[in-house]
């Protein structure tokens, strides 16, 4: 069922290992939401499928998309791989009457916030540095050098939480999942989101 307001864009950011992908899944359980599939130049991992969480493209194709102005936001992460949100995913969400959920880094979040008024930024914090490091190491997906880069980037990203509307500490997944869903429901009730619907109702009263 289509949402009864102009589509919102929910931005979810946080350091690698904060659990943001899991909380994005919780957010997508809210009816009327759709996930934004990003483009990336990083290599596809063995368990990943093209077009599920990412569309994997070459550096040359990514650069051509940038030149053609096809991204809502884009960034180079860890100084190595490029990530971007195609504008077409926003157009598709609008056409379907659904709110769009983006899992993007702090660079991309700033770009989206600058371009879209109806955006809601949510930052996910781990309970501590030690827990974050353990989560990353337990995944067994990265080399020691990659882990060191992720941890250093986490230190930097943690300082940018003030640019977000909401901050969730992911120390209890069940509670954090309820909180992220509550944010989506509450944001849909904001006056600025429902202005068109409100005016229509007022007109029916002769107002």
Secondary structure elements and their pairing?
Blueprint: E1 9-13, H1 20-27, E2 33-35, E3 38-40, E4 54-56, H2 59-67, E5 71-77, E6 81-86, H3 87-96, E7 99-103, H4 106-115, E8 119-125, H5 129-139, H6 144-157, E9 166-169, H7 173-187, H8 195-204
Parallel strand pairs: 1-7, 1-8, 2-7, 3-4, 8-9
Antiparallel strand pairs: 3-6, 5-6
Helix pairs in contact: 1-7
Task: Identify the notable features of this structure and list them briefly.
207 residues; single chain; 4-stranded mixed beta sheet; 9 strands; alpha/beta; Rossmann fold; globular; 42% helix
Spatial order of the strands forming the largest sheet: 2-7-1-8-9
Q: Label the overall shape.
A: globular
Distance from first to last alpha carbon: 29 Å
Mean pLDDT across every amino acid position:
90
Q: What share of the residues lie within helices?
A: 40-55%
**Poorly predicted parts:** none
CATH class call of the domain at 9-37 and 98-204: Alpha Beta
Number of DSSP strands?
A: 9
- Order of helices and strands, N to C? EHEEEHEEHEHEHHEHH
Instruction: Label the CATH architecture of the domain at 9-37 and 98-204.
Output: 3-Layer(aba) Sandwich
**CATH homologous superfamily annotation of the domain at 9-37 and 98-204:** P-loop containing nucleotide triphosphate hydrolases
By CATH, the topology of the domain at 9-37 and 98-204 is: Rossmann fold
Total DSSP helices? 8
Approximately what portion of the residues adopt beta-strand conformation? 15-25%
């Amino acid at each position: 069922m289509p949402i009864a307001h102009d589509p919102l864009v929910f931005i979810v950011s946080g350091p690698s290992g904060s659990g943001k992908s899991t909380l994005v899944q919780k957010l997508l359980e809210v009816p009327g939401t759709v996930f934004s599939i990003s483009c990336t130049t990083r290599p596809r991992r063995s368990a990943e499928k093209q077009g599920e969480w990412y569309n994997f493209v070459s550096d040359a194709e990514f650069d051509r998309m940038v030149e053609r102005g096809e991204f809502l936001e884009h960034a180079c992460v860890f100084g190595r791989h490029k990530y971007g949100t195609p504008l077409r995913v926003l157009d598709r969400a609008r056409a379907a009457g659904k709110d769009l959920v983006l899992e993007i880094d702090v660079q991309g979040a700033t770009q989206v916030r600058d371009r879209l008024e109806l955006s809601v930024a949510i930052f996910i914090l781990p309970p501590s540095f030690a827990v974050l490091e353990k989560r990353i190491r337990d995944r067994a997906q990265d080399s020691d050098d990659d882990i060191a880069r992720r941890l250093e980037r986490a230190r930097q990203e943690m300082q940018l939480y003030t640019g977000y509307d909401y901050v969730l500490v992911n120390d209890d997944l069940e509670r954090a999942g309820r909180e992220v869903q509550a944010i989506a429901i509450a944001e849909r009730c904001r006056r600025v989101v429902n202005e068109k619907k409100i005016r229509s109702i007022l007109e029916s009263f002769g107002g």
